């Protein structure tokens, strides 16, 4: 059990580093490299292409992944972060409508995993606040 927890913790640390890298590339304006690395991250962390996750409907997201594809709550946490990065990239590309969809998907997964978790996370609160701000801003445009 300790090995699994260590593995999950390391995976989440790697994901945090990857998200920081994506956001740095976006900030520098290297959107093509950010997109390439993001697509690789879907395969590296979740073993499927980004297109698979893009087509999943928001209203059935957790059920689809947990029941039909045998993903775990930890996979959903990773996917939430990838959806956040995807939304940030789309926003930088001036694709607000598409970004809004990914922000909503990220928030849906974050809310779900938080309800299932027994752990309190300041990081998740910060992410939730950011997601809610982005969603509100894009919805009122």
Helix fraction bin: over 70%
- Average predicted local confidence, pLDDT: 88
Q: What's the count of strands?
A: 0
- Uncertain regions spanning at least 5 consecutive residues: none
Integer tally of domains: 1
How do the SSEs run, as a string of H and E? HHHHHHH
Q: Give the overall shape.
A: globular
Major sheet details: none
Rounded to the nearest angstrom, the distance between the terminal CA atoms is 47 Å
What is the CA-atom radius of gyration, in angstroms?
Answer: 15 Å
As a percent range, the share of strand residues is under 5%
Q: Count up the helices.
A: 7
Structural class per helix/strand content? mainly alpha
Kindly describe this structure.
There is one protein chain. By secondary structure, the chain is an all-alpha fold. It has one domain. The chain contains seven helices and no strands. α2 runs antiparallel to α5. The longest helix is centred in the N-terminal third of the chain and has 27 residues.
């Amino acid at each position: 059990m300790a090995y699994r927890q260590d593995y999950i913790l390391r995976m989440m640390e790697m994901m945090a580093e990857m998200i920081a890298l994506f956001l740095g590339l976006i900030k520098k304006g290297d959107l093509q490299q950010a997109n390439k690395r993001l697509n690789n991250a879907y395969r590296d962390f979740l073993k499927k292409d980004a297109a698979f996750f893009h087509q999943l409907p928001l209203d059935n997201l957790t059920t689809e992944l947990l029941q039909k594809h045998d993903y775990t709550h930890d996979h959903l946490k990773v996917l939430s972060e990838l959806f956040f990065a995807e939304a940030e990239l789309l926003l930088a590309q001036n694709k607000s409508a598409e970004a809004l969809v990914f922000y909503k998907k990220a928030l849906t997964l974050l809310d779900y995993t938080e309800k299932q978790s027994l752990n309190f996370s300041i990081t998740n609160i910060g992410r939730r606040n950011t997601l809610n701000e982005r969603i509100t801003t894009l919805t009122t445009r």
